[in-house]
Amino acid sequence: MTITTATTQPDAATSAPAARGSFWRRFGALVAAESRILVRNRTALFTAVAMPPLIAFAFSGLSMDRAALGVVLTMTLVGSALMFVLYFTMVTSLVARREQLVLKRLVAGEPTPLEILLAPAVPLLALFLVQSGLAIGGAVALGTPFAHPWALVLAVVGGAATWTALAIWSATWTRTVESAQLTTMPLILVAMLLSGFSLPLTILPDVVQRFAHWLPMTPVIDLINLAHLGTGTSGEALAGGALVGATTGMIWPMLLWTALALYAGLRGFRWDPRG
User: Fold this and answer.
1) Is 4 helix (H, G, I), strand (E, B) or coil?
2) Is there a domain that residue 5 lies in?
3) Total domain count for the chain?
4) pTM of the model
5) Is residue 275 part of a domain?
6) pLDDT tens-digit readout, 8-26
7) Distance CA 94, CA 106 (A)
């Protein structure tokens, strides 16, 4: 007599929701842990919360009318939040977790490398969005025009993706928390000086302007100017096909930096301490 045994194969319709549920459970736990650590780390929390408003306040002391002040407020607060809330704080967080062997233990478990590296970004993204909202609210209160509000959304979303990816990449070669100030400062200084953040690019030589166009902060500043004033990189009013072309040209550098930085970060990240 032949006995046949039936093997039960997992149903794709039921395994897919289970996998999604497992992802959200893992990622949610990582994000909750990172949020608690951020709140306890007063130095990192101060840098993330106080630095962008302080920089925006310093620039607000410049003599200008209320509408122009709103544009400067949006640029400085959003740009500073990208550099100090997302980029610098995330680099130090990832390096600190690596030194404490937290990342090595996590990567040996269920979470994927991408989940582990993105988890510290979530509470920082929340802070960044709050500060961006304050900047927009301040611009509205000052009577600043909004020619193309959708460009402001592109600036916030695209800038967040770009500088999160750059943080992961920078953490690959940052050996210690102390050295994070050295490894992140060159990009921050270049972003502040050659993106339109602190001075207009139009006063620089053409070759410098072409180079600056491909820096990771420049598209954010250009999109903010477009959102408020409806002008392109040279100060010209944009409409129709010119508006579409200029917007596409602003988006491409952000997409390129995000893709390259995320690829390099995932390929080159070291899970063991490097100090």
Assistant:
1) coil
2) no
3) 1
4) 0.86
5) no
6) 444 544 444 545 558 788 8
7) 12
Looking at residue 236, its amino acid is E
Tell me which residue range forms the domain holding 66. Answer: 20-268
Task: Give the rounded distance of the alpha carbon of 244 from its chain centre.
Answer: 24
Q: Which two tokens stand for residue 140?
A: 């509205």
Per the domain annotation, does 2 fall within a domain? no
Beta bridge partners of 237: 231
What pLDDT is stored for residue 7 in this prediction? 42
Reported as half-sphere exposure (CB side, CA atoms, 13 A), residue 54 has a value of 8
Let me know if residue 6 belongs to a domain: no
- Contact residues for 2 (Cβ-Cβ < 8 A; gap 6+): none
Locate tokens 């550099």: which residue? 83
Residue 88 CA: distances (Å) to CA of 32, 187, 258: 20, 10, 16
Question: What backbone phi and psi angles, to 5 degrees, belong to 237?
Answer: -70, 140
CA distances from 232 to 144, 183, 195, 258 (A): 17, 32, 14, 23
